[in-house]
Amino acid sequence: MGEIVLAAKITHVPTMLLSEQPGKLQGCRQQAIDGQREIMRRAREAGADTVIVLDTHWLVNAGYHINSNSRFKGCFTSHEFPHFIQNLEYDYRGNPELGDAIAAKATEKGVFTLSHQVDTLDLEYGTLVPMHFMEPGDMPIVSIAGWCTVHSIEASRKLGEAITEAVKESDAKVLLLASGSLSHKIWENDLYEANNGTFTISREFNRQVDLRVLELWQNGEIDTFLKMLPEYAEYCCGEGGMHDTAMLFGALGWDKYTGKGELIGEYFPSSGTGQANVVFPVQN
Fold first, then answer.
1. Could you count the other beta carbons within 10 Å of the beta carbon of residue 112?
2. CA nearest 130: which of 17, 232, 264?
3. pLDDT by residue (tens digit) across 121-132?
């Protein structure tokens, strides 16, 4: 029987890649990179052999979608930030059977979900950036669209439930990653440079709500957080509508989850947004 062995909400900011390269940003995101490597270390220690990524850079406008290719290989340049992410080569295994099973379980719950094995369906950088640093090696990856434009939080919760149910009926030991920011109000273009945009947040209100959310997670007050999730996503411009977060907590048990989040590294602002790596222990 399979299980989710570790879950986390993680950042995927492109400056993590620039942090590795010579130049003025070298080293700027080292703590975030180290945090993701620590998450993978813990996952491997817990027996993880598969990664599921809830990717808020994969935009979908109808239904829910899962990239279940048997192999992901390519060279990625971001359309959004071509000056940040260029020629990022990748080669990972996939798990079509698990992707199909998640889609079937979700659809049974009334949440129409399609699992795709299409060679030309590429991965988005919400998956590629953390995988670059976590180095899954032979661990297969399943990527699920998390930028859901016309979807409800309730439906995303049910998709999270479907993930857990499908994993339990498999033989996979899963690291589940919700890849997206906390608040996500990117600086207006004409204000970016004037406000040192790479290293600042665009709204003090957003920072304060982010810090309160992290406090709730670390105190185990998940029920309180879930009550504010729809408004948090709306008023603080949560990335992808924070559907990745709804899926994550749906998989963990929603308001019945009693674990406490652990901040790995530091909360940090990036291009106006709020970012963090937070681990959630799994209660099987």
1. 13
2. 17
3. 999 999 999 999
